[in-house]
Structures are given as C-alpha cells and as structure tokens.
Design goal:
Number of helices: 10
Helix content: 55-70%
Distance between the termini: 38 Å
Oligomer: single chain
Strand order of the largest sheet: 1-5-6
C-alpha cells in the first residue's frame, strides 16, 4: 500500500513550497506560544514526576478521546487490534515512537516534544491497520489529528502544526535540491527560524534528510502525504489515492481525509494572499 498522488514534485515551484512552509511555520509558532504559557508550571516539576504525569494524561487521552475518534475514520473497516497503554521508555538511537499489539512506546527523552500527540495518532494507524505503509499511515494520522482539533483538543492542533511544518520543510529541501537551489533553501529557513538554524543544525538536518535519520525512507513520511494533500486541494476533492496489489492485481482506493483538507485550507490555502 502506498499513496499515489496525481501531482509530482515537478509540478510544484520552489516558491509555492516556500510559501506553504512559511505559513505552516507561522501557524506552529503562534500556537506553540499559547501552549508553553498554559503549561508553564509543569516545567518546574522534577523530570521523573513530569514524565509520570505526562504518561497518565496521555493514557487517559488515548482511551477516552483518541481511540474513539480514530475509529470514526472510514478507512478502518476492519480493526486488527488497538493499543491499550502508552509508555515512555528508552527505544534506542534514531527512534521516536514504536508500537506493539496493545501498547504505544515513546522515546523517553522526547516525552515533552510537541509532536507526541501526532506520534500517537500515527502509531494508532499502525496498530489498527498493520498493512498500511508509512505514507498512508502518516496521512491517516494527520486526519485523526485534524478531527481531534475540531473536537477542541488543542494539543493536537499544536502537534499537527509542528508535523506539517516539519513535513513541508523536508519537501522544500527536496525541491531545492532538484532545482539546484540549496543555498536559497538555507537562506529561507534561516529567515524563518534564525535562532535555531545555525550552520551546525543545518548540517545535521541535511544529514538526516540524506541518510534517513529518524524517519528511514523520509519521503514516505513527507513528500507523498504532501503531494496527496496538494492533489486534493488542486482538484477540489477530499481524499487521497492508495495503490496496492491484491492477489496479483493492482488496486486503487480512496483514503478519505476531509477534515485534514479543511484544516490545511485554514492554515495554508486561505492565508496565501494575506
């Protein structure tokens, strides 16, 4: 199974992807400031207490809110199994999150990362539908986040904004590399995050992009979902296309992502001229 968008990276200009990245980065920066102020007191807790509190909060969130919302996706006609618990533990180098049949495991050192809620959505898709590849899993995880946003869960808004920013940041790199504009890419992302994007950080980022980093085959997590969203926007549809082989025959089916498209329009498309 793999997403098969109608548009390719050749159909997009570097300037268009730059614009998407700028708006995604601005959306994340704005919403992140709110979250830090709201949870200011937590940062004074000892790390072990902080982790235990976060683990309990996320387990309650998983069982009471996240799983029921995930089950509302039409893609999950059959659910093979579902996670019952979340753990923060040491997963080893270059791992952020993993799943087993009944649990989701998050890298202990990353317990406070804004993107944890989206990691949970992603791993839920893996447990619900083990046959889905990373591109399909990523876009379905984003659809779960988008539905959680509409239900009022701010942590998923923060998380999805960061995920989309990271996703488009990598696509911008791929496009800049394709057209021989890596220097322009560096200047642009430095202008968005001047305090973060030192030369050392950029070198690490490029190394991750070129060698897989924490993602493995990075484009499955970034380029294919991004192009699928762009295809839906340009064709005024609310689904992506999943292509797979079934008993030797090539099959194609819709992956419905209406809420993700709605959120993307609010964050990106409807702000392009502002």
């Amino acid at each position: 199974m793999m997403l098969k968008p109608a548009y390719s990276i050749d159909d997009l200009s570097l300037e268009e992807v730059f614009r998407d990245l700028k708006l995604a980065a601005l959306a994340y920066k704005k919403i992140r400031r709110w979250n830090w102020l709201k949870n200011f007191y937590i940062h004074f807790l000892p790390k072990s207490s902080h982790i235990k509190l976060k683990e309990k909060q996320l387990n309650d969130h998983l069982l009471k809110e996240l799983l029921p919302t995930a089950k509302s996706l039409s893609y999950f006609r059959i659910i093979h199994c579902e996670p019952k618990e979340i753990y923060f533990c040491n997963l080893g180098e270059n791992k952020f999150a993993t799943h087993s049949m009944f649990s989701i495991n998050i890298q202990k050192d990353d317990f406070d990362d804004d993107i944890v809620p989206s990691a949970l959505s992603h791993e839920i898709v893996h447990t619900f539908s083990p046959g889905a590849d990373e591109s399909v899993t990523t876009i379905l995880g984003c659809e779960i986040d988008a539905r959680m946003i509409l239900l009022g869960h701010k942590i998923h808004q923060i998380s999805l904004c960061k995920l989309l920013r990271n996703l488009v940041r990598h696509v911008v790199y791929l496009k800049a590399e394709q057209v021989g504009q890596i220097a322009k890419w560096k200047d642009f992302i430095k202008s968005l995050e001047p305090n973060l994007m030192t030369e050392d950080y950029l070198a690490e980022l490029i190394d991750d992009y070129e060698n897989g980093g924490v993602f493995g085959k990075v484009s499955d997590y970034t380029l294919l979902p991004y192009l699928s969203i762009k295809t839906a926007i340009k064709n005024n549809i609310d689904f992506a296309i999943d292509e797979f082989r079934f008993f030797g025959s090539l099959k194609r089916e819709k992956v419905e992502i209406p809420t993700l498209i709605q959120i993307w329009k609010e964050l990106i498309e409807n702000r392009k001229e502002k």
